[in-house]
Amino acid sequence: MTTRFRAAVLTAAAATSVLALTACSNGTTSSGSGYKISFIQGVAGDEFYVTMQCGIQSEAKKLGVTVNTQGPAKFDPTLQKPIVDSVSASRPNAILIAPTDTTAMRAPLQAAASAGAKVVLVDTTVDNPSFATAQVSSDNVGGGTAAFQAIKTLNPHGGKVLVMSTDPGISTTDARIAGFEKAVKADPSFTYLGVQYSHDDPATAAKLITAALAKDPDIVGVFAANTFAAEGTGTGVRQAGKQNQVKVIGFDAGPDQMALLKAGTVQALIAQDPYSIGIQGLDQAVNALKGQKVTTPIQTGFHVITAANLATDGAKYAYKSSC
User: Which residues form the Periplasmic binding protein domain (predicted)?
Assistant: First the structure.
């Protein structure tokens, strides 16, 4: 999950819709298999999931299948569950989905699988994914570890650090936090101040980091575990005039995060590879439908983007706003 979890830019009517659907008509149609496949995003319009959709579309052309894409306006199981229920009622052959909650989304996805759909979990997962045909995600624990290493490189003498995340109960961000916590606790030169939850709201993240800096003005590093957390943390650090002291490591590489990196407010980004997640997720779904070998779980890794590689290798890992 994206984390990674930017709300779609929707009209007021769409934002308040019960289903909050954003249906995409640009799934590729061909005279191929005739499989009915749906991709349910974590958030419609989020660059992470747009990039994943681009990978799915590209692979769909090669495989000769049609993929319909929908997603909720927010990373919220109460908005995603009605979409899953509606898609399941249409009896798809396969569903690719980024579940928005480890517990709340398990039952509706289990029901879809029991009804015959091949369910492939992309990016996020649930707390008992035994019903899933395959799982494809980033190495989120490794990403959290890399975030600590980036802070350590920038602060070799140690100091106080904390995590700014979204909400508990999201598999990807929980894993990133776990990786960061394990790494920081193993280094006695650093003091871990714990996790703050910003509820996917940049303004809340900015307020939380401002309060944290008022309490502990000597904080040297913050790991912002998703898109909104990075955006809000960077804003709060800048408003506090602490950008020369506090090193912010963000997760994901959407346009806003890249802008923060270019401005020097964020010192590094841990970029996922959602394009590859999309490709491999669709590959496993089609393999399952054809009775071919399925590989699971698959981890796609991550890439560290800094000012030093921003214009070279790092640029190719920036997320897309459209295909």
Answer: 37-293
> Does residue 317 belong to any structural domain of this protein?
no
CA distance 258 to 242: 20
pLDDT more than 70, % of the chain: 90
Total domain count for the chain? 2
Backbone angles phi, psi at 73, to 5 degrees: -75, -20
State the pLDDT at residue 33.
64
Question: Is 321 within a domain?
Answer: no
Asked if residues 70 and 90 have their Cβ atoms less than 8 Å apart, the reply is no
Can you give the pTM of this predicted structure? Answer: 0.78
Q: What is the pLDDT of residues 211-268, one digit of tens each?
A: 999 999 999 999 999 878 988 999 999 899 998 999 999 988 988 888 888 888 789 9
The rounded distance, in Å, linking the Cα atoms of 212 and 173 is 20
Provide the domain limits for residue 204: 140-271
Quote the tokens at residue 36: 């009915």
- For tokens 């298999």, what's the residue? 33
Q: Which residues lie closer than 8 Å to 225 by C-beta, 6 or more apart? A: 3, 144, 163, 164, 165, 166, 173, 176, 177, 180, 251
Top pLDDT among 5 and 297 is at: 297
Residue with tokens 């936090």: 177
State the DSSP code for 24. Answer: B
Same domain, 159 and 189: yes
User: What CATH number is attached to the domain comprising 119?
Assistant: 3.40.50.2300
pLDDT at 205 over 90: yes
* Strands of the 36-40 sheet, one edge to the other: 66-70, 36-40, 94-97, 118-122, 134-137, 298-299
